[in-house]
Amino acid sequence: MKKNLLLFLAAGLTFFTANSQEINDAIRYAQNNQNGTARFRAMGGAFGALGGDLSAINVNPASSAVFSNNQISTTLSNFSTKNNSNYFETNTSKRDNSFDVNQAGGVFVFRNNNLNSKWKKFSISINYENTNNFDNKINSFGTNPKNNISNYFLSYANANPSRNQLGIPLGVITDNNYFQLNYADQQAYLGYYGFLINPLNENDNSNTIYTSNVPAGGNYYQENSIISTGYNGKLSFNAATSYRDKIYIGLTLNSHFTNYKKNNLFYEENDNANTNIVDLVSTSFENEITTYGSGFSFQLGAIAKITNEVRLGLSYESPTWYSLNDEVRQNLVSRVFNYTNNTNPNISSENPDSNDVVIYDTYKLRTPGKLTGSLAYVFNKKGLISFDYSFKDYSNTEYSIERDSRNEFVNSDISNQLTSASEFRIGGEYKIKTLSLRAGYRFEQSPYKNARTIGDLNSYSGGLGYNFGTWKLDLAYTYAERNSQQNFFSQGFKDSAKINTVNNNLSMTLAFEL
User: Fold this and answer.
1) Is residue 275 part of a domain?
2) Is 476's pLDDT higher than 50?
3) Burial 74-87, CB ≥16 within 10 A → b, else e
4) Could you give the angle at the alpha carbon of 304 between the alpha carbons of 300 and 305, nearest 5°?
5) What is the CA 380 to chain-centroid distance, rounded?
6) How many angstroms separate the CA atoms of 21 and 60, rounded?
7) How far from each other are the two terminal CA atoms of the chain, in whole angstroms?
8) Sign of CA dihedral 178, 179, 182, 186
9) DSSP code of 65?
10) Is 219 within a domain?
């Protein structure tokens, strides 16, 4: 072979390559978990026509003007996530558990002392929330009857095998010009020097067609492990006013910031019989990405008190305009048997430790906006029932990255694969003197046209609160479940694991009136 086998036997292979943004990355920032105060969570987040809660401001900015007094609150939550995976009829489970102060803020109400004015009060608030907790662990393993990891690298190599960005064959590329390649050609190069693919005719320098170097026969044992950490936070600055205590109008400006890290380790081995002099028996492919950045969005909203019992709400949340950076590391190790000079030697490639990463150009991501309509009915201060309906078109999600023409195709994929989705939230509360009993339900449609990719979400919640006078204590429990299909790779290797994700969350909020 033209590749220097000693390179792998002595030192392994580590490359640092550009990461290509994908639909799943966009969905991660386009969707939000239902976080917030314990009262908000216990009632399923159905607060668009109610207000009077710091997390309700995230649904409808007019909510702060409903407060009668100044208030500050903070919320501590426990996030427990269990992922049940099924990959070719092999079942595995993995659980992750974390604690987080996911909400803290305050609202300040200023009353108009002019009795002749119809504008009765003005409020301002500042509130922080973790809109997403990215801590998660997923393990999948099983025996694949036909497909192997080489198909991922072949999909890049055979897409344009003889005319990559440098216009030279993979076998001629060196370390000096490797970083001049785009992402697709880097993956092809990585598979070639990782011993996973070969040119069909090794004596043909044009390398027009590549084939798999993995022994044929199927029944490839495969493991895929994903560990992610991080958060998506939002700091909100809100102002609202009340007209005759009948109509409430508000505006919120949001500053978003995120830090996300995901380590994806794929392992494959086979024991297929073959006559190859150099036999590839296992591969370990690691991808690690860290994404960080910030964004901006705004919200407009109004609440109308039609009667003392009936209230209507309408709010608009703009797209979030993110500015993001990626730090990426890829690591490939191939293990081979070499029968050239010995009847049965075992020669392994050792991968050296490395902490080097590559930081890539800042890129832009625009998530879709959201429109919410709300209805609430209040029973003489004894109880209430509330309903929210939200609409979001995920196909409007868009990347904007300079000097990367491939993202034109990513945006086209987003438009073709994603769709609009509705969300329903219903919540109720009943008061027994100073004790409040609460319950809620939330349903969110899949953002994908093919709902098997990410399924619908169903969430049930409940909780209670106690009013001590100048301070309140609220507790909430939330159960949420969603099914999805996890593709191990973006192309070429299309087999996926079926994932059932169950979230069990506990929240406690302390609120103080000032």
Assistant:
1) yes
2) yes
3) bbbbebebbbbbeb
4) 150
5) 42
6) 32
7) 77
8) positive
9) G
10) no
Copy the structure tokens of residue 295.
């964004």
Which two three-digit tokens encode residue 108?
């300040």
By the 10 Å C-beta count (0-12 exposed, 13-18 middle, 19+ buried), 377 is classed as middle
Strand pairing partners for 243? Answer: 119, 247
For residue 276, CA distances in Å to 3, 147, 192, 446 come to 15, 19, 17, 47
Cα gap 343→175, rounded to integer Å: 34
Residue 398 main-chain phi, psi, to 5 deg = -150, 135
Dump pLDDT digits (tens) for 411-430: 888 999 999 999 999 999 99
pLDDT tens for 331-386 read: 888 887 776 666 555 555 534 334 456 677 889 999 999 999 999 999 988 999 99
Contact 424, 375 (CB under 8 A): no
Give buried/exposed letters for 395-421 (b at 16+ CB in 10 A, else e). Answer: bbbbbebeebeebeebbeebeeebbeb
Beta bridge partners of 302: 249, 314
Supply the pLDDT for residue 198.
82
How far apart, in whole angstroms, are the C-alpha atoms of residue 161 and residue 205? Answer: 11
Rg of the Cα atoms in the chain: 27
C-alpha 458/C-alpha 44 separation (Å) is 11
Q: Which residue has the tokens 């509360």?
A: 429
The DSSP result for 187-234, as a single string, is: HHHHHHHTTSEEESSTT-TT---EEE-SPSS--EEEEEEEEEEEEEEE
User: Which two tokens mark 310?
Assistant: 């009936």
Give kind and range of the element (H or E) at residue 413.
helix 407-417
The reply to whether 35 falls in a domain is yes
| SS3 state at 39 | helix
Is residue 383 a part of any domain in this protein? yes
DSSP per residue, 342-396: SSS--B-PPPPP----EE---EEEE---EEEEEEEEEETTTEEEEEEEEEEEGGG
Both tokens assigned to 215: 């022994």
Which CATH number covers residue 114?
A: 2.40.160.60
Structurally, the chain folds into a number of domains equal to 1
Q: What is the pTM of this model?
A: 0.89
- Domain extent, residue 135, equals 5-172+182-201+224-390+400-407+419-513
